[in-house]
Specification:
Elements lengths: L21 H6 L3 H35 L4 H12 L8 H13 L3 H13 L7 H12 L4 H12 L8 H12 L4 H13 L3 H12 L4 H13 L7 H13 L6 H11 L1 H18 L1 H4 L19 H4 L4
Length: about 300
């Protein structure tokens, strides 16, 4: 038997043992030692629960004392931008949006990019705009993909790379974004890929973009990438014109002379039938109604409409 260590006042042996060693403790035939071992086990059990409770309490305290989340900060941005006079606070909006964006919230990153691109509440800085659009695009945000592709296509980045622009616009177009489909069509026109351009413009045209409808009408009129079809060309150009695109007027006048009055009447009927299902106000699901939406290079939607464009 191993030598015992006297630690009690009466020089009796005592050892602190694990559960696997309890038989050794029992072999001592010492009631007092056994009692103290059991008390130690109970004490350790209580200490463990106290430690767990302290950890849980600390975690709960950390959660309750942490600042607002990225999404909550973004909501504060939208509230700060809403209203007029004292109820509108652009300074607070700028602070909240930057904090939310830096926490990685994609909608905030797009809005911060918008602020930089348009010079709204922040100094105009296209490089910073593209930087934040990229942050959102890399998270798969459709609006971020469209606006980054647009920025690259428009030469607002270090290098105008049509391949990279196509890649980002293609990602958004795969989610049925009409602005990306339209811009892809412009890139394909620039590359003389007329058949693919017509396909991209057609997709955007059916989603109510007048500029895409005009481009499709011109390709049909001239037979570039598609068979010449002056009748359908007139239909799409008229739909575009009636949506407010006055740039289509000259082509319409040329086609009226080529088609003759009977075919023009038929084309007008078809255009009228087509207008309802392809009207932008019908198909946009709220992603419409801002200045520059129908420009040849569409402007980005403002923050209050951005969530409709995803």
């Amino acid at each position: 038997m191993p030598k015992k260590m006297p630690i009690f006042s009466d020089n009796r042996p005592a050892v602190l043992l694990l559960d696997s060693q309890l038989p050794t403790c029992l072999d001592l035939h010492d009631t007092e030692v056994h009692r103290r071992v059991e008390m130690c086990k109970i004490g350790c059990f209580r200490t463990s629960w106290l430690a767990i409770f302290a950890l849980l309490a600390g975690s709960l305290f950390a959660q309750t004392t942490a600042g607002p989340s990225a999404a909550q900060l973004y909501e504060k941005v939208m509230n700060a931008l809403t209203g007029t006079g004292v109820s509108r606070n652009d300074l607070n909006a700028t602070d909240y949006i930057r904090r939310s964006a830096e926490l990685g919230y994609a909608p905030a990153q797009v809005t911060l990019g918008y602020f930089y691109e348009t010079g709204t509440t922040l100094a105009h800085n296209p490089t910073q705009a593209a930087h934040w659009y990229r942050k959102a695009a890399e998270q798969g945000d459709v609006l971020g993909e469209w606006l980054l592709g647009r920025a690259i296509f428009n030469g607002e980045t270090a290098m105008r790379d049509l391949n990279e622009a196509s890649d980002w616009l293609g990602k958004a177009a795969d989610h049925n974004d009409p602005f990306s489909q339209y811009l892809l069509g412009l890139i394909r026109l620039e590359r003389n890929e007329y058949g693919q351009a017509a396909e991209s413009f057609r997709k955007a045209a059916y989603q109510g973009l007048p500029q895409a409808q005009q481009e499709l009408g011109q390709l049909l009129k001239e037979g570039r990438g598609v068979d010449v079809d002056k009748f359908d060309a007139y239909v799409w150009l008229l739909v575009s014109f009636d949506a407010g695109n006055n740039a289509a007027a000259a082509d319409l006048q040329q086609l009226e002379s080529a088609l003759g009055s009977n075919l023009v009447e038929q084309a007008k009927t078809k255009a009228r039938e087509l207008q309802s299902p392809v009207a932008r106000t019908v198909v946009a699901r709220g992603c419409t109604g801002w200045p520059g939406e129908f420009d040849s290079l569409p402007s980005p939607p403002p923050p209050e409409l951005q969530h409709y464009c995803r």
